[in-house]
Amino acid sequence: INQNKPSDAQELLAYYNREQYGETSLLYGPQFTETYAGIDKNNSYRDEKPNYNRDEKAGKYVIINNYKNAIPNYDDAHKTFLPRMWSTEHAGNYIALTGELDFKIKREYLDQEKLVNEVNLFKTRYQKGEIDSDDYHAFLTRFGEYLVISKPTFGQNMRYLFEYQFGFMYWRYFMWNFTGKQDDIQGKNDNFSGNWISGIKFIDEARLGSQENLPSDVLNNKGRNTYYFLPLLLGILGIVFHYNKDKSSFWVLMVFFLFTGLALKVYLNERPFEPRERDYALVGSFYVFAIWIGFGVYALYDMIKKYLLPKIAIPLVVLVGLLAAPILLASQNWDDHDRSDRYTARAMAKKYLDSMDKNGIVFTIGDNDTFALWYAQNIEKYRTDIRVINTSLFNTDWYINDMRKKAFESDPVALTFSPNLYHGSLRQQIMKHPFIETDSTISLERWINWIGNDDPRTKLELQNGQFIHTFPSKKIRIPVDKVAVLRNGIVEAKDADLIVPYIDIEIKNDGLLRNRFMMLDIINQNNWERPIYFSAGSFGDDDYLWMKDYLQLDGIVYKLVPIRTPVNPRNPFDMGRIDSDKMFDIVMKWDWGNSGSPDIYHDPETRKNSISYRSNLARLAERLIIEEKLDKAEQVLDLAMEHMPVEYYQYYTLLEPFVSGYFEVGSDAKAIELYDKIAKKYQERLVYYSGLDFTLQRRYIETIYMDIERYRSVLGTLLYSKNDSILKSRADAFNAHLKLFSHFFANEEEETLDRSIDTIRDSSDMMDEETFLRLMDSLERANNE
Known about the structure:
Elements: H1 9-16, E1 28-30, H2 34-37, E2 45-46, E3 52-55, E4 60-63, E5 71-72, E6 79-81, H3 91-98, E7 103-105, H4 113-127, H5 133-143, E8 147-149, H6 154-178, E9 180-181, H7 201-208, H8 216-219, E10 225-226, H9 230-245, H10 247-259, H11 262-268, H12 283-304, H13 310-324, H14 326-337, H15 344-354, E11 361-364, H16 367-378, E12 387-390, H17 397-403, E13 429-432, E14 442-443, H18 444-452, E15 459-461, E16 467-471, E17 475-479, H19 482-487, E18 502-506, E19 511-513, H20 514-526, E20 532-534, E21 551-554, E22 557-560, H21 580-588, H22 604-626, H23 630-643, H24 646-649, H25 656-664, H26 668-690, H27 694-699, H28 701-716, H29 724-738, H30 753-762, H31 769-784
Parallel strand pairs: 11-12, 11-20, 13-16, 14-17
Antiparallel strand pairs: 1-6, 2-5, 3-4, 7-8, 9-10, 13-19, 15-16, 17-18, 20-22, 21-22
Helix pairs in contact: 3-5, 9-10, 9-12, 10-12, 12-13, 13-14, 15-16, 21-22, 22-23, 22-25, 23-25, 25-26, 26-28, 26-29, 28-29, 30-31
């Protein structure tokens, strides 16, 4: 892919300026509190950067956007010197890290008794610890127009810089490399993941709490590496030695170290929290410190040569140096850097592509759903008939133009809009026309034509004098050509009677970005000729074009079908219907990339991908059980357990349907074996939590309670067994672990058969009537006995 397509001066400049990543201010600029203050009354708008287009006839670049007064200017009072906390999307996390903001009611609203009471109640609850940072942010957002909210102080900005941007986002990574790393899980500023450790027990316990009875998931995490401070001490020794021996070259390296480390943190001005760990950006400074480790080895030789002969000193220092750094580092890091025999990323791409019919179009939602597909198609030439459309990039003109071209075996994507209608910032965002009051449902074709029309009546003048394109209605009707649907295999002939004559959608937002109406334009132009799919990277209504009720789960993607399957509001994540025969054929042919092997490194992304695999396979097994295809259902359950073993993939709540599923297909032994493995994981965690001091237990009470409830939930799957003694014996084990926290949960009910009956009644709408009645009869018989 020609990312950003920098093929002329204007696009090259935008590429160099990283305009796609937005604008941040390093020396002077706004802070996140501007979102509470609103538009500056004295200076409401500011100019946007001019957007140029190459005019071939004129032989020059011409401005094509109305850039004057194009951007809202928020209250200048919230700007500051060295703004560290700038992202309005991360306000809650800023407050969590740096503390409360000073605010008071505006003078003109002091006579509003209800408002005064609300503010006083909020402050009281916050002081009692009943309000978390997200609640704090929500309150300020709700009442911001009635309050005078002070911006974060310079001191709070510096605290954030040193504690989070330097401490958490640099020194933590530094210590990972030269002292040790807790695991391969992204840190969220708690004691349980993503921290540095040393392997020296009393030091690690002073920082992170008890290191006794660590769960097997912690001890067996291949990303857990301990160096006992040895590389760090060698590096510090090397720094001192280098400074004393050659100050001029020392300062060259020190500048390099600082500019590729701490200075980079100042420039990047990172938010809490980033989508992923950012240690890779700092490799330059780690290289420099590694050079000092080399100097440290020589410093050891320089010290001991005074006491030992060179023929003894040299091999001794070499041996100590090798053991303290490269050999120790290699022994600890080899298992989590060994990529041999692991093909899970490629297998994920093949799963996606093999879940789709020939000549399909798939809308992918994120990078992780897209890059693997690009690799499979561009490098391995696999399933090149599929057109992959990244909906994030579909906001850009250059990417839309790429979609209009043939790619490998995939035909061009048909669009109504010509390139001159969406160049640069034209139609980057459109909004509902406020002066068209209609509840009428408009055909998709007419709706698209309105957006593409430059008639002044289709535009709206904003307060800043700018004109914006609009859409006429939030209600759209998509016609269904039943003949085309059946001819092109969008729906199997056996389901022909389920096809609806049209699909009505309702847009929830008043504004739409370009990618959304471009996606709708593809739906319009396609007219059921090519199958259209959505990847499963999100659950937003707009990501599925407000058509969640018209999806079919095929393997790991959702296919757009003109068959209505309403989403269950009690379980909104289980979207779409399932054609069990088709999906069974798809998943049984999946390539798993050696994912079940005990010899490979199951990295975090491999483990995360199991969330979708397990969820979808569980839904398929459930569907097969309902259809009384028990042999196929058991094959699906076995498939998941074979390729995603409990020991390597975690996410234990996703295994509950597999326990109940094994019971329902009559494989009680497999169900009990799986349950016992899951229960052991929760037991290990609870035993570990019980060993923490009381202060840490109180700090992480929500985590403890969540694991107790997850344990209770998986215990409930034993209700599917016909053997009541199975539940009783394992309920006793649950109660024993619950008692470890009796000081917190003294009033917590123990798990009994009476409580189990109540649990089943509460969840009865999630199982079929026959299963519900059978379980109720079984439990009540046990109670009577």
